[in-house]
C-alpha cells in the first residue's frame, strides 16, 4: 500500500460483477479482433484510489466507498498473487524441488512447509499444472480479472490435451444460450469460451456450468462417482 499522501495509481481491478451483453459475447467469440478490441477498451487500467486512507485508520471511520475500494483492490491483488504462487509451484514441482528424505510428494511438502492440508495442497497442484496449458486464462488471472474460485472450477474440465479442451469448450458453448451458434473447432477458441464464461458470470454460475459439463462429458460409472461429480470435487 502506498504511504500517506500518495495519489491514485493505475491498477487492474477484479471485475467479476461486470457482465458482457449476450449478443456481444457471441459475436466476439466468432471474431478474435472484436474480442481484442472490447477487452482493450473495457480493461484499460483506470485511475482508482488505492489505500488512500492513512494507516492505521480505525475501520469504523472509513466511508463505505473507501471500504469498497479497499476490498475490490485487495481482491484483485490476491488473485494476482495466487496466480504467481501457482506458477512458482508448478515449476517447483516439475523440478522436484520438494524431494528429500521422508518427503513423499509436493503435496506432502506443502503440508509440512506451508501449513496446508494435503487435500488443499493436491488441489493447488492440480490447478497450477492445468494453468500451464491455459495462457489466456493465466493472463487474466495474473491481472486480477478472474478469481481463484473461477480458475479452480474451469481447470476441472480442461483436460490434459487440446482435443479434450476443444470438446469441453464446444459442450459449454452448446449449453449457453448466447454461445450456441459459436463453432468451437480448436483449443484456442475453446479457451476463449472458458475465459468469457468466467469474465461474464459469477463464480457460482461457472461452478454450475462446469458441473453440468462434467456430468455430460465424463459420465460416472457408478453412484459413488456421480456423488463426487455433484459435489464438484
Summed up:
This protein has 233 residues and is an all-alpha fold. The chain has one domain. The protein has 11 helices and 2 strands.
Per-chain topology:
Layout: E1 9-11, H1 22-29, H2 32-42, E2 46-48, H3 64-94, H4 106-113, H5 118-131, H6 135-142, H7 148-154, H8 162-175, H9 187-200, H10 203-217, H11 223-230
Antiparallel strand pairs: 1-2
Explain this structure:
- The protein has one domain.
- With 233 residues, it is mainly alpha-helical.
- α3 (64-94) crosses α5, α4 (106-113) packs across α5 (118-131) and α7 runs parallel beside α10 (203-217).
- The protein is built from eleven helices and two strands.
- A two-stranded antiparallel ribbon has the order 1-2.
Instruction: Please give the share of residues in helix.
Output: 55-70%
DSSP strand tally: 2
Q: What overall form do the CA principal axes indicate?
A: flat
Total helical segments:
11
- If you average the pLDDT, what whole number results? 74
Strand order of the largest sheet: 1-2
> In what range is the share of β-strand residues?
under 5%
How big is the Rg?
20 Å
Order of helices and strands: EHHEHHHHHHHHH
**Span of the ends, CA to CA:** 36 Å
Structural class: mainly alpha
